[in-house]
Ring-1,2-phenylacetyl-CoA epoxidase subunit PaaD (Aquamicrobium aerolatum DSM 21857), 190 residues
Amino acid sequence: MSAARLSLPLEGRVAAQPTGGVISTPAAFVVSSADRAWAAAAAVPDPEIPCVTVADLGILRSVEIDDHGVAIARVTPTYSGCPAVLAIELAVEAALLDAGFEARIERVIAPAWTTDWITAEGRDKLRAYGIAPPQKASNSVRALFGETQVACPQCGSGETERLSEFGSTACKALYRCTACREPFDYFKCI
């Protein structure tokens, strides 16, 4: 795989000398095209939960540049029936095209996505948005059968109750905090 090297904007560069000297670009300001492609794809927000990106959710598996300069993004759907998977793939492709790449999206179904792939930053973003992030234990029998204690994203109380197994999307359940009385979604553990 060949990797073209591109320079970042002029911030932090040494200016050209009036005597005809060359612009010096520190190594920290040079990024590969694969890094640029990853950054473009990773910034795509999830269409159902726009506070997090596809990278935050862990569904953007990789981005590589092939020998012909095509950015290949690999995406794993959250589950096989996810209605947003095509929208996500099209948005990632559009982001890569907007960044100046030819693009190809590959859907990767194995290994299956798990909520354990959500980044710590993604969990923080969910909480700040008012969605309780999943417990980090997708292989736990308690998590799989909804016996998980869910902390309220508003006040942090563990005194919560499930109102419905399904919330605003199939991957979320509807809860209510008995301390602050606020309803909230819980991103189910998968």
